[in-house]
Amino acid sequence: MEFAVAFTDEELVLRREPLPTCWTSRFERARPVRAVRSYAGQGSVTRDYWSATTGGQLSCESQLERHHAMLLDFDPEVTGLAAQPFRLFWPGSRGRHGHVPDFFARFADGSAAVVDVRPDDRIEPADAEAFAATARACELAGWHFRRVGGIDPVLFAKVKWLAGYRHPRYLLEPAASRLLEVFEVPTGLFTGAEQVGDRLAVLPVLYHLLWRHRLLIDMGSPFQRDTIVRPA
Fold first, then answer.
1. Cα–Cα separations (whole angstroms), residue 26 to 29, 64, 78, 105
2. Of 4, 74, 187, 225, which sits with the fewest C-beta atoms within 10 Å of its C-beta?
3. Can you state the percent helix, strand and coil of the chain, rounding each to 5?
4. pLDDT tens digits, residue range 51-102?
């Protein structure tokens, strides 16, 4: 199967090339290949997501896409991230088919993943064909392919809370350095914060350090005042 890719490069030039000639392109820096627009009767809410990884906005076509953008942003291995990064074309029985994946992620080890967001119960035959073609293209390019849907509610509740403190403005000194010292020994969340200073002033800094994975907690259980915080 022959694949072609249409994308907007870093110089804002719209290009269309065979996959073998462009798979090394930095798609994590690509501008969205299409605009995300709201329309009357739309079943989901579109809303941009500000990424701490990139320092820029990611265009999301649904609330679920925005949630998965947040999870990718929280992943410490993700070093680059783009939304609507390219349009993939491939031949079909009725001419050429096309599909725009939701995200392209670059990881610290140099590998990459193409991510499509669609719940299991909303995959139509045309979607299944597009995902299968995208997975095949990713295999040829040496990328991973992920089709993701629902999110564990406990995990997402924690990530969403920490995302509220993802901006670098919450990295305040000397509180950040003191928190890293205090939690060298695993300690309860509130107990450790109170050792550094006024809890209400210190907790935002602590949440930022948790967002950045400089401190760690069990992401599989609900937040509590005695949640154990440990060093990374």
1. 6, 25, 14, 10
2. 225
3. 35, 25, 40
4. 999 999 999 989 999 999 999 999 999 999 999 999 999 987 666 789 999 9
